[in-house]
Every structure is written in structure tokens, then in C-alpha cells.
Amino acid sequence: MVPEPSFDTWPVIFLIAAVQGYFIALILWRWKSGNRRANRLLAVLLLLFALTMSEYVLYWTNYIFQYMHLANLSAQFPYLFGPLVWLYLRSIYTQEPLRFRDAWHLAPFILATVLYSPWHLLDAEHKREVTLTQHNFPVSMLVLRILLWTRVAHLLGYAVWNFIYIRRQPQVGATTRWAMSLNLFYSGFVLAYTSYFVLIRFPFFNTSWDYHISATMTAFIYLIAYAGYTQRAVFDGYHWSEPNAPVKYRNSGLTPEASRSLLQNLTSLMVQEKYFQDPEISLEKLATALHAGKHHVSQVINEHLGASFFEYVNQLRVEEAKRLLGETSRSDLHVIEVAYAVGFNNKVSFYAAFKRSTGMTPTEYRRSHGKSDGGEAQPGAV
Question: Is the backbone of residue 254 left (phi > 0), alpha (psi -120 to 50) or beta?
């Protein structure tokens, strides 16, 4: 006998959240400014959450028996959630376009849908009878268990990978906080989803407690809504192109905020930790130390400091050399020792860089600014 449809408080709350999810997904899909690709990826994710919650509401209220072709419609959606979050994060960080090879993320969903197809191919009456346990489910129990635990593993794998990916990107204030918040809420859903299928095996567990899965999806939907209201960049898709940037950096994917954050890290490493003293320093080595791309490091040095990489390094070395020459005498530290101390590996390049910056040789600078050791050093003496 088909149960009578009825509503109580929780299904109403989740139905309202689902409707809001549809609405926000529509706004994001149609939003014209900023990174439209990122917006649309987020819109699809919200749409899938809203569809899943709508199906759950149909089950809880027994209206599913009137719309049997919607039953288990969302069963394989979890295979899509992780890839959508990952592709969204990649889009806001690098603005990398979607390519054909990205379709491999869909492979688990497609395979699972094929394995589950005997259910989808049933007519409404047969689905109703299966749901009322009057007939066996058309997919074997072994396949159902494999699908369930691969969904769980798939969700967990993407949650972990997304955190690793975010940590590898430049730490750029609001953007990093948004990316972390998004993946934290997604991870909350993953844990809720996983815990349900673990706890359901225990006798104390009430199957109606699956409300907590919808609660996490509701929280995710409201996170997007709240963030979009308080942080315009969310609905602008974190479009990272700087309108007034030089042409060579117009498509670099480095936002002004990211650029300032990278500059701060660069300054800390080079000025405070004196990384320039490494005689083997290179742009690649510096970029690795900063956990950033060498193109972005070069861009920050060019735009904020008005110099090339080697000009910037030599400026810092010369300033440090001036300090040492001013604080020591020739008997304390020879000029060539100063050169080696600040990172130069030969006398010629040191003298050339120093004179180009100060208009004096190191020896002349020491004579006029440094300590006297009782003797006059000749120009060029070491």
C-alpha cells in the first residue's frame, strides 16, 4: 500500500533551501561579469545539490510514489561533486580553460550510471513495487555496495586533494579564505554522507537521521548565498585579470591581492632572511622557495619594484655591501670578502654593480663612509 503524502518541519526547511539553491544557481549561471566559467561550475554544483535535496524531500513526504521516475535520480551525483569543486578552484586560481582531457573526471559518474541503468530503465509501476519491497532491486547487491563505497572514496579523495591544491597556491587573503571555506563546507557534506552509511549499520541508528546530509547541503547553499552578498568577488567569479596591468602580464592570472601577498612574502624572504646572499640564486630557485610560479615572481618584481630579477638581486646585494663597508675597516673585512658575503661570486661583477648603483668603487665608498684602520687603501685594493 502506498503511504499517504505528508509534510513536517524538516522537509519544509530543506525544500525551501532547495528552491533557494535553484535560484542562486540561476543567478550564477547568468552572471555576466567576472569569471563566467567559475560561476557556471559553481552553478552546476548548486543545481545538483538542490536536485538531491528535492529528491530527499519527495522521499520524506512520500510524494516520491507519485513521481517514481525521480526516485534515485541523484544516486550517482556524488561522483560529480568533487570534480566540480576541484575545477572551480582551478578556475579561480589559474583561469585555466576546460579542456577535453578534463572529461576524464566524468568517467566514474558515467560508469556508475551505466551499472545503475537497470533501475532507470524500469517503468514507474515496477519502480513503485521495488520501493515498497514487493520486488528485488534490479541491480545486484554486490554492484550496489561497490557503487556506494567507491562514491564515498571518490568524495573523500577529492576533499583531501582540494585542500592540498589550495595549500600549494599563493596565500592571498580573501581568495584563500574563500577557497578554504568552500572546501570545508564541501568536506562537511562528505563527512555527513560517509557517516550515514557507516552508522546505518548499527542498531541504534535511526534512518530518519539522514536529515544531517541535507543539513550540510543546506549550509553549503547558504554559504554561497551569504558569501555572494558580502563578497562581490564570489559572484564575480574571482576574475583575476588586472585591467591596468602591462600587456605582457594581462593574462597572468595574478590578482592585485595575490600580487601584494606575493610581494610581502618576497620581501620577507629577500630582505629579512637575506636570501639574496645565496651565490647560486636564480629566478627558478626563488620561485620554488616562495611556492609560486617563476612568471608570477618575475611579474611582481617588475611591477612593484620596477626592476628585473637580477637588477633586484644586485640592488639588495649592493645595499648590504654598503652596510658592511660602512661598519667595518679593511683590516676587519676585505672588499672581496664583502663581495662574497653579500652573494657575488667574483670581484668584477661586484665592482660593476656597486659603481653603477653608487657612482663609487667599494674602496672609495669605504674610505668616505667606513671605519679607519690607520692606513689609506688604494682604489681597487682588496
Answer: beta
